[in-house]
Write a structure and sequence with these properties.
Elements: H1 2-15, H2 25-31, H3 34-43, E1 60-64, E2 69-73, H4 77-86, H5 101-106, H6 108-119, H7 124-134, E3 138-141, H8 144-149, H9 151-154
Antiparallel strand pairs: 1-2, 2-3
Length: about 160
């Protein structure tokens, strides 16, 4: 849609006439089914439900914290190791069940249980602050009150 709008703006600059731009929401939603479609076309069955977990990366999901929830994307080895150290469970780094991305995905339930126990001990703000220092992708999960009271949401747009 963005490309279509930009093309229409450029055409207007050249011709002085606007254009009608449309997109297919069905095609956009279908295109977002990358992992699910791969499973379906590979195995001929509906993919299993995974909840908050990612089909091809682990740990990469929402975790409960002491006061809410935090999303952590620590699928890359260096992020995973940094998270384990920060969570004070460095022994997971050498655990053969979690030695590679493939192994972590295969043993995701066990890994998430172990990490969740530690992540629940501290606040979302603490995790965000510390994970950001380490460069680990993360973000808070806001409830509606937090969204509508957030300074960025309340701030008037520039311009």
């Amino acid at each position: 849609m963005t490309i279509g709008i930009l093309a229409a703006v450029q055409a207007r600059h050249r011709t002085g006439r606007g254009q009608y731009v449309e997109t297919s929401l069905l095609e956009a939603a279908t295109a977002l089914q990358v992992y699910e479609a791969s499973h379906y076309f590979t195995f001929g069955t509906n993919p299993p439900r995974t909840g908050q977990s990612h089909r091809g990366s682990s740990p990469y999901q929402v975790f409960p914290s002491a006061d809410g929830f935090v999303t952590i994307g620590a699928g890359q080895q260096r992020f995973y190791e940094a998270l384990c150290r920060l969570a004070d469970i460095p022994e997971l780094i050498g655990d053969v069940r979690f030695s590679s991305m493939v192994e972590r995905v295969l043993h995701n339930d066990v890994l998430i249980d172990l990490l969740s126990t530690q992540i629940r001990k501290r606040s979302t703000a603490w995790w965000i602050t510390e994970l950001e220092k380490l460069g680990v992708p993360c973000g808070p999960v806001f409830n509606h009150q937090q969204v509508f009271e957030d300074p960025q949401v309340l701030s008037p747009p520039d311009g």
